[in-house]
Amino acid sequence: MSMRATVNESTCVGCGLCADTCPAVFEMADGTAKVIVDTVAIGDADDCRKAAENCPVEAITIDE
Ligand code: F3S
């Protein structure tokens, strides 16, 4: 299994919740979340899913 996360940067409103929830995968830069890994490590998968579920504008897509 390899999980990938993407942020739709035109949808993201920069709330920062994803970077707080899963800092291993998401980082804030210039008011937008960036995905900083190619694939999400197994140990970060739950936090990463949680970040996607909790994003207020559903800007995060998870492929697995
Ligand atoms: Fe943006 Fe959603 Fe994260 S609004 S900062 S992608 S929680």
Could you walk me through the main structural features you see in this protein, from its secondary elements to its overall organization?
The N and C termini lie close together (7 Å). This protein has a single domain (4-63), classed as Alpha-Beta Plaits, CATH 3.30.70. It is built from 2 helices and 4 strands. It is of the alpha+beta class and 64 residues long. The relative contact order is 0.36. The protein has a two-stranded antiparallel sheet with strand order 1-4. A two-stranded antiparallel ribbon has the order 2-3. The longest helix is centred in the C-terminal third of the chain and has 10 residues, at 45-54. It binds FE3-S4 cluster. Residues 7, 12-18, 33, 55-57, 59-60 line the site of FE3-S4 cluster.
Which helices and strands appear, and what pairs or packs with what?
Layout: E1 4-7, H1 17-21, E2 26-29, E3 32-35, H2 45-54, E4 60-63
Antiparallel strand pairs: 1-4, 2-3
The chain binds FE3-S4 cluster.
Question: Which labels suit this protein?
Answer:
64 residues, binds FE3-S4 cluster, 23% helix, alpha+beta, single chain, Alpha-Beta Plaits, 4 strands
